[in-house]
């Protein structure tokens, strides 16, 4: 008798391409941001002058240091839930770079990392008294991931390729490498997940994003500001022009997920003791991904996302080391 075609499970549920940025997390006052000429709540590349001032502030305080980058935070959270994840990126030949790799490996994330001579990328994550976070970026070699360093077999052996608009910022090697990876994914049947990332970034590269999204992605993540910045509309369903499944995060108002035929809305958990909103959206996405891979209803996917987001904002830092098995049975 002829054999039936049996789908062989892929090695990784998610492979993420990310700017490999080590988070230097500090609590600051609003006056500090004003003195540094940093726009509160946004992600901005540092100048030589405000980088020097930030380094002075860091030396006076005791910052928390951990591997960062939005897609990295997503797979960190997804790995905690039991998904098999891999990382693609570029670090420098310094302690920050080697610590970045080791931290991911300790969290059961396989690393396919290019190590370049020079400084690793740093993200000064500045937490205001209200819990809002502002990012000052010193990219180092983080943008130096080249097309030839994208492993075709890795992309083919992944259910999802996940990345964000941050990787498209600037005419850098990682921009072209990420586009190359999406072409491989489409050829190999790997699904594509894209996070709009930041309204400031969207405004700066909007024509390039619209061009990229003409070919559509499988899953598109955004918050309300990012959705408006991309579509120039209050109608979030316009995002379906670019994706089969859209997830819009609405902060305290919850989140909505929709396809052309289905829609689900879930309120967020009420959190009184907010310490740091950094990583809330990334951890939400990690939980949502878990629900998708388990074949759970969109409503449950959103609930899991909210659970992770609510827990991460009660602490300083965008990542948790808490492993949770069967989260769908405890929320």
Summed up, what is this model?
The protein has a single domain, classed as 3-Layer(aba) Sandwich (UDP-N-acetylmuramoyl-L-alanine:D-glutamate ligase).
Instruction: Based on the coordinates given, report the CATH architecture.
Output: 3-Layer(aba) Sandwich
Oligomeric description of these chains: single chain
Strand fraction band?
25-35%
Strand order of the largest sheet: 6-5-1-9-10-11-12-13-14
CATH fold call: UDP-N-acetylmuramoyl-L-alanine:D-glutamate ligase
**How widely separated are the two ends?**
46 Å
Give the low-pLDDT segments. none
Order of helices and strands: EEHEHEHEHEEEHEHEHEHEEEHH
Question: In DSSP terms, counting alpha (H) and pi (I) runs of 4 or more, how many helices?
Answer: 10
The coarse silhouette is globular
* Count of domains: 1
Query: What summary fits the major beta sheet?
Result: 9 strands, mixed
Helix-strand category: alpha/beta
Q: Write down the Rg.
A: 19 Å
Give the name of the CATH superfamily.
Ribokinase
**Proportion of residues in helical segments:** 25-40%
Average residue pLDDT? 90
Could you outline the blueprint of secondary structure elements for this entry?
Layout: E1 12-17, E2 21-27, H1 30-36, E3 43-45, H2 48-60, E4 64-68, H3 70-80, E5 85-92, H4 95-106, E6 109-116, E7 121-127, E8 133-138, H5 152-156, E9 158-164, H6 173-188, E10 191-195, H7 199-213, E11 217-223, H8 224-231, E12 243-249, E13 255-258, E14 263-266, H9 280-293, H10 298-312
Parallel strand pairs: 1-5, 1-9, 2-7, 3-8, 5-6, 9-10, 10-11, 11-12
Antiparallel strand pairs: 2-4, 7-8, 12-13, 13-14
